[in-house]
């Protein structure tokens, strides 16, 4: 079992999803090999809810990491779940087209693997705003 996927599964167990009951866990691996995990956190109005990928990226960024190598996502009720569009854009801020995205297919199956660039081609980035990353 891939350690990154294990971290995503463990994070999923801590999800706070009382309204949708759709628990998601994510883990990101930074350029130096550090791993940060996060789970979805729902609030009653939904719009203020946090997605698992956002929480994981936020934890990594708050510790000074600015480059992602790999991402893992786990949702047992939806095997093969890929990050939503909003999360893909967040991942693209700290990753690149070659960042690997592992999607949990369940305990007895290998994860599906995608490149972030395939999931989000032509992502908006710092250069589009005239900013040097």
Mean pLDDT: 95
Low confidence ranges: none
**Counting H and I runs of at least 4 residues, what is the number of helices?**
4
How do the helices and strands follow one another from N- to C-terminus?
HEEHEHEEH
Shape: globular
Description:
The protein has a single domain, classed as Cytidine Deaminase, domain 2. The protein is built from four helices and five strands; from the N terminus they run H-E-E-H-E-H-E-E-H. The chain has helices at 3-12, 52-62, 85-94, 116-119, and strands at residues 25-30, 35-39, 68-74, 100-103, 112-115. A hairpin with a 4-residue loop joins strand 1 (25-30) and strand 2 (35-39). The longest helix is centred in the middle third of the chain and has 11 residues, at 52-62. The mean pLDDT is 95.
How is this fold's topology laid out?
Elements (H helix, E strand, L loop, with lengths): L2 H10 L12 E6 L4 E5 L12 H11 L5 E7 L10 H10 L5 E4 L8 E4 H4 L14
Parallel strand pairs: 3-4
Antiparallel strand pairs: 1-2, 1-3, 4-5
In short:
This protein has helices spanning 3-12, 52-62, 85-94, 116-119, and strands at residues 25-30, 35-39, 68-74, 100-103, 112-115.
Keywords:
133 residues, alpha+beta, 5-stranded mixed sheet, 4 helices, 26% helix, 20% strand
């Amino acid at each position: 079992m891939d350690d990154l996927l294990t971290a995503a599964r463990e994070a999923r167990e801590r999800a706070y999803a009382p309204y949708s009951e759709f628990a998601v866990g994510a883990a990101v691996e930074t350029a130096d090999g550090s791993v940060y995990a996060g789970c979805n956190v729902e609030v009653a109005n939904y719009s203020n809810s946090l997605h698992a990928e956002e929480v994981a990226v936020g934890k990594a960024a708050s510790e000074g990491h600015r480059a992602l190598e790999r991402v893992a996502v786990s949702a047992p009720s939806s095997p093969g779940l890929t990050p939503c569009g909003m999360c893909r854009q967040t991942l693209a801020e700290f990753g690149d087209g070659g960042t690997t995205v592992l999607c949990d297919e369940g305990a007895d199956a290998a994860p599906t693997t995608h490149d972030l660039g395939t999931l989000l081609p032509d992502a908006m980035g710092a250069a589009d705003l005239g900013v040097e990353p």
